[in-house]
Amino acid sequence: MGQSTPWVVGLTGGIGSGKTAAARCFSELGVHVVDADQAARWVVEPGQPALAEIVRRFGSEILQPDGTLNRAALRQRIFQEAEQRRWLESVLHPRIQITIDEHLAQAQSPYAILVSPLLIESGQYRQTQRVLVVDVPESVQIARTVARDQVDEAQVQAILKAQLSRTERLRQAHDVLLNEHSPEHLAQEVKRLHEFYLGLTGGQP
């Protein structure tokens, strides 16, 4: 009997919620994990067609001396002009989607995880069978992000405002992983969810 196609859990959460830590726990249990942020980085690596298109549009000043994309310079260009941002999205999004699909297709586990900070906003949740939200109180998000990224609290507040609200994210969730305790507690919760997921067919109880 051949391997049946794995179904997909979309894992998301706000900044500082612990998406990466949760994804690592699933990975350690043998679950195939695909990271949308990683896919977004791959499509603009040197030698990729998307990077060549970006350079044709914005010129070589959009590159670092080593030929990689200067993200800060690009961000500045698209931040000022909505039309440029739309153009960039039209170039990147289909390619990111293809990359995600290719990596999900390689899964050998009964289910796979798609980690994406913008799972709900981007519509990526439509290719998943369940949405898992890693959730923490806002005060914890702020404290963790300030410590991790060495940024001030006002910057984190601005990011939180730009992201989907915690309430809205939770409203979309099939499952919620509370991550305000220790890493050991998170690993235990992931293991519990993993056992539950293994008993599901195509993401349905």
Automatic annotation (TrEMBL):
Involved pathway(s): Cofactor biosynthesis; coenzyme A biosynthesis; CoA from (R)-pantothenate: step 5/5
EC code(s) of this entry: 2.7.1.24
Alphabetized InterPro entries for the sequence: Depp_CoAkinase, P-loop_NTPase
Subcellular compartments: Cytoplasm
Highest taxon in the source lineage: Bacteria
Broadest EC class assigned to this enzyme: transferase
Keyword set, alphabetical order: ATP-binding, Coenzyme A biosynthesis, Cytoplasm, Kinase, Nucleotide-binding, Transferase
Recorded GO MF terms: ATP binding; dephospho-CoA kinase activity
Annotated ATP binding sites: 16-21
GO biological process, one term: coenzyme A biosynthetic process
Reactions accelerated catalytically: 3'-dephospho-CoA + ATP = ADP + CoA + H(+)
Annotated GO CC locations: cytoplasm
Family assignment from sequence similarity: Belongs to the CoaE family.
Function, in words: Catalyzes the phosphorylation of the 3'-hydroxyl group of dephosphocoenzyme A to form coenzyme A.
NCBIfam families for the chain: dephospho-CoA kinase
Protein name, per record: Dephospho-CoA kinase
Gene encoding the protein: coaE
